[in-house]
Design a protein that fits this description.
Blueprint: H1 19-49, H2 52-62, H3 65-92, H4 99-125
Helix pairs in contact: 1-2, 1-3, 3-4
Length: about 130
């Protein structure tokens, strides 16, 4: 068979995205987002340890709306990655592999991530943490 006429293996564009596939890809993206946002946490901790002036500067910087958007996304990534990691721990025990269970646990992961993100931001914005 000539090289140009060889059959091609199916590509991602052929397949309809499945819930489990989307969640798996999202898990990888949230892990990357957490790694990329880690310097923000380090900056906050260094500012906290460096005294009142440095901490006040950091809080001012974190108060800017573009940074708040990044922090919101990072907090969602954290809660999603956490919830999905717990789901994977359950899978490590051999439970939850039935298709209906995998879909239900996937929905629970997304709901948990959204609720935990919103609750943590509501707590922070209302001054519950101070």
């Amino acid at each position: 068979m000539a090289a140009g006429k060889r059959p091609l293996s199916p590509h991602l564009q052929i397949y309809r995205p499945q819930w489990t596939t989307v969640l798996s890809i999202a898990h990888r993206f949230t892990g990357l987002a957490l790694a990329l946002s880690f310097p923000l946490l380090v900056y906050w901790l260094v500012a906290l340890a460096s005294g009142d002036a440095a901490y006040a500067t950091a809080l001012g910087w974190f108060g800017a709306w573009p940074v708040k958007l990044v922090l919101f996304a990072a907090s969602f990534a954290f809660f999603y990655h956490l919830a999905n990691g717990i789901r994977h721990l359950a899978w490590d025990t051999g439970r939850g592999f039935e298709l209906s269970q995998a879909y239900a646990s996937g929905i629970a992961v997304v709901i948990a991530a959204v609720l935990l993100t919103l609750l943590s931001w509501a707590f922070w914005l209302t001054g519950g943490g101070s």
